[in-house]
Amino acid sequence: MNSSVSSSSAALVRLEQVRFAYGEREVLRGIDLEIHRGQVVAIMGGSGSGKTTLLRLIGGQLRARSGRVEVAGQDLGGLPHSALYALRRRMGMLFQFGALFTDSNVFDNVAFPLREHTDLPETLIRDLVLMKLQAVGLRGAAALMPAELSGGMARRVALARAVALDPMLVLYDEPFAGLDPISLGIIGQLIRRLNDALGAASVMVTHDVHASLELVDYVYFVSAGGIVARGTPDEIRASTDPYVHQFVYAEADGPVPFHYPAAPIASLLDKVSA
């Protein structure tokens, strides 16, 4: 983990009092967070808590209803489309389950952002693609089609594509979903290693507590549209907050109840006997 990140250095990502709603349904309210270069940060919370919405706000796919979303010193809410597009070229995105182009082979999947966003000659693109595939251990799979890959291999190809342009910021939406333990461990190591090699910042939305706490530098917990806890992995493990403790230790009952609300059993017996 990167323990050398200075809390006084300028944050690469900063959110200040961010609110967001889908129509009249408010999803996020009063969100404040900072992410620095060199950090791998996890955003955790239950399903429907607003984690993926938060990731999309950071990536510029959504715009906040109010507050400020700042990336590399630029307020995303005030950027024209062309400037936002240019900024997003400096970000990488690993979608849930990889989202590879099924009609393109491994090489062309990784080459796509280089061809789309640069004027590099094809010979240089070839070298860069093979270098990225080598970094994820799949240079030998360059000619394979996505249907020929295991789930873990497909996720590694998607990771190579996400870092093809050497981004300053990489966003991960459930990078461990559906992976076996070996593949999960490999992806976790690659996320950490590639982030450190690029000097980038990485933000991952994840439900996998154990794997995430082993590799991230900082954690934000989201619940009911707000950040209810934040801290280093050790601070999160030691948290006495009931919600955080239940989530981290996978307890069946707590602030998130095991039982769905029901009428008293006596009232049900009365109805049966009647």
Task: Characterize the structure shown.
The chain has 274 residues and is of the alpha/beta class. The chain has a domain at 13-90 and 167-273: Rossmann fold. It contains ten helices and ten strands. The strands form two sheets. Strands 6-7-8-3-9-10 form a six-stranded mixed β-sheet, sandwiched between helices. A four-stranded antiparallel β-sheet has the order 2-1-4-5, covered by helices on one side. The longest helix is centred in the last third of the chain and has 18 residues, at 181-198.
- Listing every helix as H and every strand as E from the N terminus to the C terminus, the arrangement reads EEEHEEHEHHHEHEHEEHHH
Question: Separation of termini?
Answer: 64 Å
The strand count comes to: 10
Number of helices: 10
What's the structural blueprint in terms of helices and strands?
Blueprint (H helix, E strand, L loop, with lengths): L12 E10 L2 E11 L4 E5 L6 H9 L6 E6 L2 E2 L5 H8 L2 E4 L11 H12 L4 H14 L15 H12 L6 E5 L7 H18 L2 E5 L3 H7 L2 E6 L2 E6 L1 H5 L4 H7 L16 H9 L1
Parallel strand pairs: 3-8, 3-9, 6-7, 7-8
Antiparallel strand pairs: 1-2, 1-4, 4-5, 9-10
Helix pairs in contact: 3-4, 3-5, 4-5, 5-6
Give a brief outline of the structure.
The chain has 274 residues and is of the alpha/beta class.
Supply database-style keywords.
10 strands, Rossmann fold, single chain, six-stranded mixed beta sheet, alpha/beta, 22% strand, disordered N terminus, four-stranded antiparallel beta sheet, 274 residues
